[in-house]
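Re: that chain you flagged

S.,

Sorry for the slow reply, it's been a week of failed gels. I finally had a moment to sit down with the sequence you sent. For the record, here it is as I used it:
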Amino acid sequence: MTHENTREIPVWDLFIRQFHCSLVLLFPLTYLTVGEDECLLLHSDCGYIILGI
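Prediction finished late last night. Pasting the structure tokens below so you have them in one place:
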């Protein structure tokens, strides 16, 4: 069933996709490094990146 007057509207543009994917990757990484002394720099960097975006 095809309509000639319909057009495709993108729901997520590039910025929204990058924002969402970065949060999906950074939140678990931040959570997994919360108690590790050797990963403190990575943990704080991830937190700052989350705050920045």
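What I noticed first: The mean pLDDT is 87.

Talk soon,
D.
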